[in-house]
């Protein structure tokens, strides 16, 4: 009976830890999701920035698995290069290890304070306060679980059964590695398993060598859930998660025979033997990142050969199922998913135009016409699908949602037209004629390009979540874009008056690109109109804009 109670306390503490981790991830995503995704997508220009982006994203989300899946989705949409994606995940692994090291520093006493502060913050009205409060509560629960884990493992110090089991693992390191990896895979969290190992290590019944082996297993098992999650995804996403698993597997296979030599060295660290699991976890991931980083390009090439390209899918809609028309809520959800895909295509077109503008590379523009044709096709299919849905009669709420989806799809189609008929021609002329903008003019256009792409990503979030605060911020962005366009045009005219040769050569291009980027942003901002209209603020916002 006593052993049953011990096991219940142990599993309950682990469950609380996993719940706390989930709360942190959901809270941070709710509060900073759009900014976090934008930062991760844009923070991969080089190796150092990539590893820092992965590190910071994982510290925020408390989940290297979440970072891995987010990174894989960005590779799928060509927002991150495959090589940089591998480096991002190296940083994510270090982020998880740093988190484990921090929670093991004896700050459990902060748990009640964090939970109290989180509940107060959660009672706020904004989604950011809700998300921040949920994240604080999650951190408090994580620290509380450490205290419960310590209490739950206390009776194990004198358990003959546990001592015998630990003895068996100590004599069979490969089995111990697989056992720990299985726990990390089942829990989808290497952090949770490392914390469990930390609690077991405090009992004094686990040898230092076995602790190192178990930590290696936790690292190996933590790389498996992203691979499983992307099995049905595109080849580009599968390559990223598979590459991370290959790196961790190689690291574990190299480190496993050295565990006996590493144990005495790690015990000499000034942090004390009680912190051996988190010290091992951190040092292993730092060394792994340092060793694997130079081979990231080779790894990307290897995974590309290992996972062949997907057969090109049908260019038609993926989610518009006619069988779902009898259930309006499901049909509207499917149409929403389809239109989100159209938004991704527009983002890809903008990125192609932006890259061609920055690098003077005509090849970046080659895909834009085909993407625009697909945008036209999909938005037409969405309109036909929702028109059929409306024939069966819809509630007022569902009818409004249907109109919102159609309006957003039409606006996306207009953006595609502007990119193909405007930006494509303008950037192509710049590249083919070898034209150079003035440094100020180039910087102004570059900034507006980046802002437009960021705004589209936020618009995609607003379209799904219908977040009121994000919608208001989007309306404020409209004013900011107008100000940037006006200032850039005025500065350009000043340069013309000064007789700047580079400005004279690119005058029409500069003004045309400013106009088209402004038009695209106007269509992007329209996603906020229905939300503000329902709140009675749309007319007020427009009047304020006109007054300004």
Write a structural description.
Helix content is 80%, strand content 0%. The protein contains 24 helices and no strands. Helix 1 packs antiparallel against helix 6 (127-153) and helix 10 (208-222) runs antiparallel to helix 12 (235-255). It is globular and about 80 Å long.
Shape: globular
- The pLDDT mean sits at 83
Q: Indicate the multimeric state.
A: single chain
Can you write the helix and strand succession as a string?
HHHHHHHHHHHHHHHHHHHHHHHH
Task: Characterize the largest beta sheet: strand count, sense, and whether it forms a barrel.
Answer: none
Low-confidence stretches: 540-548
What Rg is obtained from the alpha carbons, in whole angstroms?
27 Å
Counting H and I runs of at least 4 residues, what is the number of helices? 24
Please give the number of β-strands: 0
Helix fraction, binned, reads over 70%
Structural class: mainly alpha
Q: In percent terms, what proportion of residues is strand?
A: under 5%
Distance between the termini: 74 Å
């Amino acid at each position: 009976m006593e052993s049953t109670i011990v096991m219940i306390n142990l599993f309950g503490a682990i469950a609380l830890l996993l719940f706390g981790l989930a709360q942190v991830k959901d809270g941070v995503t709710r509060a900073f999701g759009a900014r976090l995704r934008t930062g991760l997508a844009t923070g991969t220009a080089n190796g150092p920035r990539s590893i820092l982006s992965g590190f910071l994203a994982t510290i925020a989300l408390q989940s290297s698995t979440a970072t891995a899946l987010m990174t894989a989705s960005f590779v799928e949409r060509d927002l991150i290069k495959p090589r940089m994606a591998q480096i991002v995940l190296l940083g994510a692994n270090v982020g998880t290890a740093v988190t484990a090291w921090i929670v093991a520093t004896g700050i459990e006493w902060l748990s009640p304070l964090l939970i109290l502060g989180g509940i107060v913050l959660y009672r706020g009205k904004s989604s950011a306060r809700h998300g921040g409060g949920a994240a604080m509560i999650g951190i408090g629960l994580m620290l509380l679980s450490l205290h419960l884990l310590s209490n739950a493992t206390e009776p194990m110090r004198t358990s003959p059964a546990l001592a015998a089991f630990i003895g068996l693992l100590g004599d069979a390191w490969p089995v111990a590695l697989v056992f720990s990896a299985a726990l990390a895979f089942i829990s989808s969290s290497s952090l949770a398993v490392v914390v469990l190992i930390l609690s077991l290590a405090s009992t004094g019944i686990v040898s230092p060598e076995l602790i190192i082996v178990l930590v290696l297993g936790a690292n190996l098992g933590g790389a498996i859930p992203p691979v499983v999650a992307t099995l049905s995804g595109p080849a580009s996403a599968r390559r990223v998660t598979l590459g991370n698993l290959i790196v961790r597997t190689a690291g574990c296979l190299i480190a496993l025979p050295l565990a006996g030599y590493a144990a005495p060295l790690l015990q000499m660290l000034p942090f004390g033997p009680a912190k051996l699991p988190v010290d091992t976890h951190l040092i292993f991931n730092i060394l792994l990142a340092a060793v694997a980083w130079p081979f990231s390009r080779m790894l990307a090439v290897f995974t590309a050969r290992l996972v062949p390209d997907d057969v090109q899918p049908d260019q038609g809609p993926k989610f518009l199922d006619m069988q779902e028309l009898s259930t309006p809520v499901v049909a509207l959800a499917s149409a929403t998913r389809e239109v989100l895909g159209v938004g991704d295509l527009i983002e890809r077109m903008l990125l192609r135009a932006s890259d061609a503008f920055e690098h003077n590379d005509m090849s970046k523009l080659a895909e834009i016409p085909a993407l625009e044709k697909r945008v036209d096709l999909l938005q037409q299919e969405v309109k036909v699908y929702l028109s059929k849905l409306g024939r069966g009669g819809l509630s007022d709420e569902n009818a409004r949602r249907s109109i919102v989806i159609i309006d957003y799809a039409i606006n996306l189609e207009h953006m595609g037209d502007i990119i193909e008929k405007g930006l494509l021609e303008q950037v192509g002329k710049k590249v083919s004629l070898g034209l150079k903008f003035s440094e100020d003019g180039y910087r102004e256009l570059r900034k507006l390009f980046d802002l437009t792409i960021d705004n589209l990503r936020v618009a995609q979030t607003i379209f799904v979540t219908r977040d009121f605060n994000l919608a208001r911020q989007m309306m404020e962005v409209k004013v900011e874009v107008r100000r940037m366009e006006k200032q850039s045009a005025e500065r350009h005219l000043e340069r013309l008056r000064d007789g700047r040769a580079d400005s004279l050569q690119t005058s029409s291009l500069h003004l045309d690109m400013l106009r088209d980027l402004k038009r695209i942003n106007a269509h992007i901002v329209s996603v906020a109109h229905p939300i503000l209209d329902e709140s009675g603020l749309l007319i007020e916002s427009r009047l304020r804009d006109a007054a300004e």
